[in-house]
Amino acid sequence: MDFDSFRQLGFIVMVALAVGGLLLTVLYPYFSGAKKAEKRVKAVVSDGKAPVKPGLRARLMAEDPKDARRKQIQESLHQQAGLGISPRTFYLFAFMLGLFIGLGVLVTGVPWYVAIVAAIAGFFGLPRWILKFLRRRRQQVFLNDFADAIDIMVRGLKSGLPVIDAMKVIASETPAPVGPEFLEIVEGQRIGISIDQGIERMYERMPLAEVNFLAIVMAIQSKSGGNLSEALNNLSKVLRDRKKMKGKIRSMSQEAKSSAAIIGSLPFVIIGGLTILSPAYLNPLWDTTVGNIMVIGSGIWMCLGILVMRKMINFHF
User: Fold this and answer.
1) pTM of the entire predicted model
2) pLDDT of the residue at 313
3) Rounded to the nearest 10 degrees, how much is the dihedral formed by the CA atoms of 40, 41, 47, 52?
4) In the 8-state DSSP scheme, what is residue 50?
5) How far, in Å, CA of 78 to CA of 80, rounded?
6) What are phi and psi of 33, to 5 degrees?
């Protein structure tokens, strides 16, 4: 395979990554339902009333949107994804990644505006996708060990240990991220933070329904009393049943995911095979303006199809 063939193949890959990252950044909130949820929350909060214009003091004391955004990214990096980097480092990494992708696309010989689109997609889309991937992976590891941690707490309570001592056992014996999360609760006790407040903070760092269940159980027990070990034992059974149900759903949807992966990779496999077997066959796509437009249009429609298939096979439970 000569250099021109490699350049053409690289052009396909770079354009697909650029367009896919850009579309994922722009269209993901609409496919994931985040926009609809945001509208519902605004409708409930507003309750049909006209918004009240804040006074001068309120506007001066209000938090800067840039600071709020920076704080949100800081919490997402440190708490949910488990990364010990600052937002400035994250933005620097995103800038270097976008610059690298843009230069890589430009080296392949494509027009400069395509390289700019690729750089923008590399700056805005790919780093956030990596951040979401790390956050989901950390949450999955947390869920795998969370039910065992509740069982440790149940056994500790049945043997006569206080709740905070049972949590100390979890913090010292359970691997990350479950152990460090319970360690935050134990450390908070030393500065006057109650267990209920500590679990609420855990839910902010790990926004999962299972953590919310624990917060509800602890809040009800602290206000109304009752057998905490029995309530936590029932919670452990619920968590394990939910884990089994997730495994069943994942196994049942694996066939659809495999089909989507085959359909999504088939055009690239065919183009790669034709480039190796008959390089001149695809030259009109790279050497003519109409061919370039067809490639870009096909890439856009393919990315839209991948997003639609992802929405169809991605189950939230």
Assistant:
1) 0.62
2) 76
3) -130
4) P
5) 6
6) 85, 10
